[in-house]
Amino acid sequence: MSESRRKFIKKTLALTAGFSALACGLLTPKAVSAAWSKAHFAETSLKKTLQLIYGDNKITTSKKISIRIPRIAEDGAVVPFTVQSSLEDVENIRIFVAKNPVPLVASVTLMPKAEAYFSARLKMAETSDVIAIVKAGDRYFQTRKKVKVTLGGCGG
Q1: In the predicted model, is pLDDT for residue 65 greater than 90?
Q2: What is the per-residue burial (b if ≥16 Cβ within 10 Å, else e) of 77-96?
Q3: Which of 18, 29, 67, 73 is most exposed, with minimal Cβ within 10 Å?
Q4: So what's the pLDDT on residue 2?
């Protein structure tokens, strides 16, 4: 009887120590940890951000990428969007808002064989193009949609 109680206490202490280490950030899964690039998310122009991220790589317009986003956003603080692609071997999806102070809104790296689908909400400072750039293999593809941001839903 006491042997099973000892095992129970040991397991409880081990689990408590493990969860404490996880909660304190001592144990972090590397696959889940996001790599953060301050330079990519800096206040600058769209042109400078694209040059920083893609350099001289050619970005081709593709009909195999779709952005579902309202044409008119009544509240620029919360604009829902979905990006989906039927391109093969999609590695990364980045979302840009051309006239935002920080043009890069989101960057998602996908696992191999994952469905190229991403949905979230973004913030828009003013009426602007929303651009999705997808890296598939060693090539880059884009699509864009213009979204009109109204002031308080009054068409401003």
Answers
A1: yes
A2: eebebebbbeeeebbebbbb
A3: 29
A4: 57
154 part of a folded domain? no
Within a domain: residue 3? yes
Question: What span, in angstroms and rounded, lies between the C-alpha atoms of 124 and 105?
Answer: 9
The one-letter amino acid at 98: A
Q: 92-147, pLDDT tens digit by residue? A: 999 999 999 999 999 999 998 889 999 999 999 899 999 999 999 899 999 999 99
Residue 66, burial from CB neighbour count under 10 angstroms (0-12, 13-18, 19+): middle
Total structural domains within the chain:
2
pTM summary value: 0.73
Element (H or E) spanning 10, and its range? helix 2-24
- 35-63 burial string, b = 16+ CB within 10 Å, else e? eeeeeeeeebebeebbeebeeeeeeeebe
Q: Are residues 98 and 26 in the same domain?
A: no
Q: Are strands 104-109 and 117-122 parallel, antiparallel or unpaired?
A: unpaired
